[in-house]
Amino acid sequence: MEKQILIGGAAGQGIAKTALLIGKIFTNSGYYVFNYREYPSLIKGGHNFNILKVSDKPVNSHENFYDMIISLNQDTIDKHREKLNKRGFVLGDKNLKAKNLIGFDISKVLKETGAPKKFGNDILVGAFFKILGFPIENVLKVVEEVFKKKTDILEKLIRRGYTSVEQKLELPEPNEKNKYFMTGNEAISSGAISSGLDIYFAYPITPATPVLHILASKQIENDFMVVQLENEIAIINAALGASYAGAISMVGTSGLGFSLMAEAISLQGISEVPLVLYLGQRTSPANGVPTYTSQGDLKFAVNAGHGEFPRVVVAPGDSKECFYRTIETFYLAYKYRVISIILGDKHVGESNYSFDEFEEPKIKPSNFITPPSEEYKSYSITENGVSPRAVPGENAKVRASSYEHNELGYTTEKEDLIVKMNDKRLRKMDFIKEEINKLKPVSVYGEGKNLIIGWGSTKGAIVDSLKKIENFRFLQISYICPFPTEIVKKEIENSNEIILIENNVTGLLGDIIAEQTGKIIEKKILKYDARPLTSEEIVMKVEKVLK
To answer: Which of 92, 229, 512, 541 could hold 71 in an S-S bridge, CB 3.0 to 4.6 Å?
Structure first.
């Protein structure tokens, strides 16, 4: 069983909140839900919509056709009516014009109950779940959990909608487990808190801003700080200062802000002050399409900053992965004194994914600070390239230099020391790669002699498409740097047809694969209209590519 529900209206009408409520009611009842959100860069007006895919089996993406539309204005019907299934129906105000409209006199109900206009959505929520045969108690329980306040008036409105219609559908009984229902940004925030975050620095920018808001709301109960400074240059330098002083620190940004951080990223490379950075991609170049998605920053993340120095770049494919990969980035950044970049995008960051449970993380991050000896050297040359980390105030002279330096941190221009320090820093990569090989840097889904390769948020649609494509398996590459060369090369060599799928213009992962393995992938499915791929699109395009 799969049902697709579209909820649409103008910005300011509570579209996202209504979709979240419906999604939580479904997941709390044991169903799997994927929630896709699309909205323009407007505070009010425009056309906003969410698409919920609901199933009794795991789902990882949405489609562009609908079984039901909950419409808060005529514009939603006009834009989406052609994609409504023949037996589908529209829920909305009685004055809307649509085939199969189930209409309500929303103004009359609001007047009778004394409720504000923005609460009209809840009448439709009540009617929606009555049509599907949900017990009213299941609906009201989640309403109370989500809103906490004003639930009396919400309950009245939901009951009015619920009693105004008859049940039309009967859904199969789902798995009885309550599901987690999280966005990638929520999971990244939870992963940072679980990693012992001390301080988060950010300047608001879509789509990374939700992490700033989530962490700000949790800082008191979890005993860490959230700081918003004047720009991205300030936040990354402040974060390096906090990390130098011993804090576990993190910054969040999108492509525009990441551009401003490039110099400080290079500072991290030579100073070896550990740092975690969340890069939420959006459509670019420049301001691009601010509230939409893309995977255009892959090579920028791998190469940002002048000079050569080690880094970690990991790209989670759903919210569950966002949680665990975030913990891994903290572990690797602080153990090896490098910058670890979580490479997300608008789609994975702002979509809700549902899953059954969290397992205990396999690793435990730490600040990896060791009490210094009397002979402490900030940059002592070691076998694995990692110098023991101390912080100021612990009876040691702790230096962090932006110049090339000797083991004590003093500036040097000597040839032999320049070579030794470059070798020391880059030597870390061999040991980081050993660690990453234990963290499942790639995943393989399905079986077949043909191979689809992708990364990041394309995972959901690709996994869902495997149900409809014969003889294909999917290679998801999660760690981009250091690159899992041997594994990827082996998978390619053991395949007949190979198709690269990315949400960008030129196939950036394909370039990296060619550089790292020598394998050039000719067949590509690339989408760059600022929207994510759907499984139906992938099925059609795979068939076309293979002809």
So the answer is: 92
Residue 456, by phi and psi: left (phi above 0), alpha (psi -120 to 50) or beta? left
203 and 118 in a common domain: no
- Are both 107 and 220 inside the same structural domain? no
Q: What is the DSSP string of 142-169?
A: HHHHHH-SSHHHHHHHHHHHHHTS----
Final residue of a domain: which of 355, 385, 410? 355
End of a domain among 328, 355, 382?
Answer: 355
Mean pLDDT of all residues in the chain? 96
Same domain assignment for residues 244 and 106: no
Sheet hosting strand 199-202, strand order edge to edge: 225-228, 199-202, 249-253, 275-281, 339-345, 311-314, 479-481
Give 234's contacts (C-beta < 8 A, 6+ positions apart).
Answer: 203
Can you give the pLDDT at residue 372? 85
Give CA 114 to chain center in angstroms. Answer: 39
Cα dihedral: 149, 155, 158, 162 (round 10): 160
Q: Which residues, other chains included, contact 127 with Cβ-Cβ below 8 Å and sequence gap of 6+?
A: 91, 102, 104, 161, 162, 164, 165
Q: For the domain that residue 100 is a member of, what is the CATH number? A: 3.40.920.10
Does pTM surpass 0.85? yes
Pair 87, 48 in one domain: yes
Q: What is the pLDDT of residue 146?
A: 87
Q: Are residues 200 and 302 in the same domain?
A: yes
Does some domain include residue 380?
no
Please tell me whether residues 146 and 191 are part of one structural domain: no
CATH number at residue 481: 3.40.50.920
Q: Which residue has the tokens 């409105």?
A: 157
Above 80 in pLDDT, residue 149? no
Q: Give Cα separations from 30 to 50, 357, 476 (angstroms).
A: 21, 12, 28
Query: Is position 434 within any domain?
Result: no
Percent of the chain with pLDDT over 70: 100
Q: For residue 346, which amino acid is it?
A: K
- C-alpha gyration radius of the chain: 25
Cβ burial, residue 383 (10 Å; 0-12/13-18/19+):
exposed
Segments forming the whole domain that contains residue 8: 2-163
- Sort residue 46 into left (φ over 0), alpha (ψ -120 to 50) or beta: left
Q: Is residue 130 part of a domain?
A: yes
Q: Are residues 191 and 135 both part of a single domain?
A: no
Instruction: Evaluate whether 257 touches 203 at the Cβ level (below 8 Å).
Output: yes
As a whole number, mean pLDDT of residues 34-38 equals 98
Question: In sequence order, what are the residues at sequence separation of 6 or more whose Cβ sits closer than 8 angstroms to the Cβ of residue 494?
Answer: none
Q: Are 503 and 298 in contact (CB under 8 A)?
A: no
**Number of domains, the chain:** 3
Q: Are residues 185 and 153 in the same domain?
A: no
3-class SS of residue 152:
helix
3-state secondary structure of 231: coil
Q: C-alpha angle 244/247/253, rounded to 5°?
A: 90
Residue 175, in any domain of the structure: no
Q: How far apart are CA 255 and CA 276, in angstroms?
A: 16
Instruction: For residue 498, list its beta bridge partners.
Output: 451
Q: How high is the pLDDT of residue 339?
A: 98
Give the mean model confidence (pLDDT) for residues 319-325: 98
